[in-house]
Automatic annotation (TrEMBL), chain A:
UniProt family annotation: Belongs to the ABC transporter superfamily.
Organism this protein belongs to: Sunxiuqinia elliptica
Record flagged with keyword Nucleotide-binding: yes
Protein name: ABC-type multidrug transport system, ATPase component
SMART domains noted in UniProt: AAA
InterPro entries registered for this protein in UniProt: AAA+_ATPase (IPR003593), ABC_transporter-like_ATP-bd (IPR003439), ABC_transporter-like_CS (IPR017871), ABC_transporter_ATP-binding (IPR050763), P-loop_NTPase (IPR027417)
Record domain ABC transporter: where: 2-229
SUPFAM superfamilies: P-loop containing nucleoside triphosphate hydrolases (SSF52540)
A Pfam family per the record: ABC_tran
UniProtKB/TrEMBL annotation, chain B:
Protein name: ABC-2 type transport system ATP-binding protein
Record keyword Nucleotide-binding present: yes
InterPro entries reported in the protein's UniProt record: AAA+_ATPase, ABC_transporter-like_ATP-bd, P-loop_NTPase
Keywords: ATP-binding, Nucleotide-binding
SUPFAM superfamilies: P-loop containing nucleoside triphosphate hydrolases
Segments forming domain ABC transporter: 6-235
Pfam families: ABC_tran (PF00005)
Keyword Electron transport: no
CDD domains tied to this protein: ABC_subfamily_A
GO molecular function list: ATP binding; ATP hydrolysis activity
UniProtKB/TrEMBL annotation, chain C:
Membrane topology: Multi-pass membrane protein
Record PROSITE patterns: ABC_TM2 (PS51012)
Principal location class: membrane
Annotated TM spans: 21-40, 173-195, 222-244, 250-273, 285-305, 340-360
Keywords (A to Z) from UniProt: Cell membrane, Membrane, Transmembrane, Transmembrane helix, Transport
GO cellular component, one term: plasma membrane
Signal peptide: none
Pfam families listed in its UniProt record: ABC2_membrane_3
The protein's name: ABC-2 type transport system permease protein
Localization per record: Cell membrane
Amino acid sequence: MIKVESISKSYQATKALNRISFEVTQGELFGLIGPDGAGKTSLMRILMTLLVPDEGKASMSGLDVVRDYKQIRQLVGYMPGRFSLYQDLSVEENLEFFATVFGITIAENYELIKDIYVQIEPFKKRLAGKLSGGMKQKLALSCALIHKPEILVLDEPTTGVDAVSRKEFWEMLKKLQQQGITILVSTPYMDEASLCDRVALMQKGEVMEIDSPARIVENYTRTLLAARSDNMNRLIQDVRNWDEVESAYAFGQFIHVTPKRNEMEAVELEKFLMTQKHEKLQVNEISPGIEDVFMALMKEKE
Amino acid sequence: MKTPVISVKNLVKKFGSFVANDHLTFDVYRGEIFGFLGANGAGKTTAMRILCGLSAPTSGELMVGGYDVYSQTEQIKRNIGYMSQKFSLYEDMTIAENIRFYGGIYGLSVKERKAKEEVLLSKLSLQGERDKLIASLPLGWKQKLAFSVALLHDPQIIFLDEPTGGVDPITRRQFWDFIYEASADGKTIFVTTHYMDEAEYCDRVSIMVDGRIAALDTPEKLKKQFEAADMNEVFLKLARKAKATE
Amino acid sequence: MNRFWGFVKKEFYHIFRDARTMIILFGIPIAQLLLFGTVITNEIKDAHIAIYDQSKDEVTQEITTKLLSSGYFVLDQYLESTADIEAIFKKGKVREVLVFEAGFAQSLEKEGKAKVQVIADASDPNVGKLLANYTSGIINDYMLKEMGEMQLPMQIKPEVRMYYNEGLESVHMFVPGIMAMILMLISAMMTSISITREKELGTMEILLVSPLRPVQIILGKVAPYLGLSIINAVVILLIGHWVFGVPIAGSWVLLMLESILFILMALCLGILISTMAKTQMVAMFISMIALMLPTILLSGFIFPIENMPVPLQILSHAMPPRWFIVILKNIMLKGTGLLYVWKETLILLGMAVLFTAIAVKKFKTRLE
């Protein structure tokens, strides 16, 4: 459905995208995972025909993003990063406006947005600017879906949104996917990667890895140890200062440690930390998460 | 033994008939990293603004850094530092110009400021870059610099409003190293975040739901109390409960 | 078509829900009109003059009477020598002195010309200028009536527009100016702001990726403001006519058509501005500095074009309001038809076409 071939894009001196290639198949939920400045927005804007790439080709549903931009605009739904609805229009008026823009009525495609829209329908007379964050998002999604697009492109829909609303949003996306819509979504939250079928890990305009979240984790061969003690601050300093350790990062209540030797076992680290007089020590070997892999890939690139 | 730096008793803030903060009561102690969590629209920003002296409470007793929020907002502003992800430094000014500007705002003498500037730049090993525009720096640098600048006038308390949003995972962690360091220096850190793993790094965490503080304790105890594996689960349980009763 | 009306409806929501927009649209024009009208009429009323009549004949008497009966001048005193002139100005009360040469009537009869000197107190240059203009207007008017078509070279260069403003009500002169200014402000500034606002809010991104064509977006933006500006034009004309008694000698239909043409031109200019500006602030500044100031300063609204330095005179040709003001004055005050203003109309039309062409060309279907 979406095909990106060696796309590059620069703004003056900075290279926003450097030879990006990937494909998204029909009905897939594909995630672009990366921090700000990774090039996610630029890439999405190119696909949405809002920007022209410097090099490379891209197509949506077989249509070229530069040449056939008019047709693409008919069949793709887009939700930009910022909340971009009319704040001085009510919920209902916003939806109505976007329906007329696409030359349809709300009733025609109501089935598709029903699940989402019923949640905000009680507030349909309220101005969009007065909605809470989660409700704004639902409205924006309803508006992006009103013309029944084949492809849905969402630029950081969950940024700055609390954990509960994020969870709900992903549940909505899953439902849409079941209705056959191809979804391309970007996010800076690494933990959301596991909710996608496949992801591209992006950093500084480059794709570091593309695969299913499970395989990305599987393919990571380095040993990873998790450690905690009663003094986490000192723990992390001590681990970092040990010359057997390549890197150590805080991960919630644990520290994730990558040893230099792949064969190192948890007990070795534990022994070392005991010599440093740490108490309530807990060290295990763990399987990595997407974030561990992302960080390792980042380091490799540097 | 523990001295409260921020003391809030029965804080109420209303906007018309809407109650944004409904009788908040909590203390933040010296040197503590205090996580201030909550769903969007739960009233975090409102409370934070009041604590920074930017907005007056409707009622309640509040002391920040030993000063009264109603009558001593000027002193409060001198004793706090503030940094948010959105606004921190002027992009079209150089590193040195930004430092000088903020030093000027807080009334540092030229001598003081110069000394601080040197310490700050050498700590970040940015001596060679002082004449570079902020816009040309990588995000990670900008953030560390913004944090250091917020500390320039030696405030007792630093308010961080979603300081790590959209930042890559390595930079995010390096930023927390900075927070720990400042806390070890006796600074009190008051931080909001949407990353639940970061909630684990805080000494104590308060979770706001619908204008009230629904939970406040160390991450350890909260997890025990809510029988959750991590803070994310604690948060979801609390916020879900609120939704159910809505 | 449905899309278009949907768009227009949305624009009206924006306009009617924003109190500030409504004030700019309707409050400011009316306030400005009333303010300027009152201030300008009062400024010139009962200006004290002195006359040094070296001739004291029939003609000078008649001119004096005519001046004093105009309602703008009050005779302070007759002077007896040139030395008195400076003295009386120093007192500050008298703002203008008229000096008729000796043997005024004879030389007018024999040589077909006579000299009258108008000396105005220029400590307030605008008022001085205005008084001198009025005086020469009245004198010319007298000449025309009394002497027929005979061309009389006078020391004061006659102001052409004075001929047709017999009552010399100053309000008459400024209504066209105010109208040009207000229509320019509302049409150009409001459209440019409303388009840039969508850019700022990020909604433009959504509009661009929708099947709406740029022309549809532009028309949808322009239509509501066209309607509102027309209402505004009517309101200004009505207030001018009923409150300040400005005559509308020519055809109302032609007047409205010309106004619509000018509004369209201004709307296109607004769109052009919005293609250049990224934020509402920038759009506002460009509208203010690039449109408002020239409208006020260079269109002949306040400062007569003939008195400007040559470079500014040339520049004033590029100012659309200049042509519109000429058209308005012709239709309203002279009562002439299209036959006399076709040239100005064509110029405005040309400008409108030019601005539209550039705006459509520059309006991007993408973000870059």
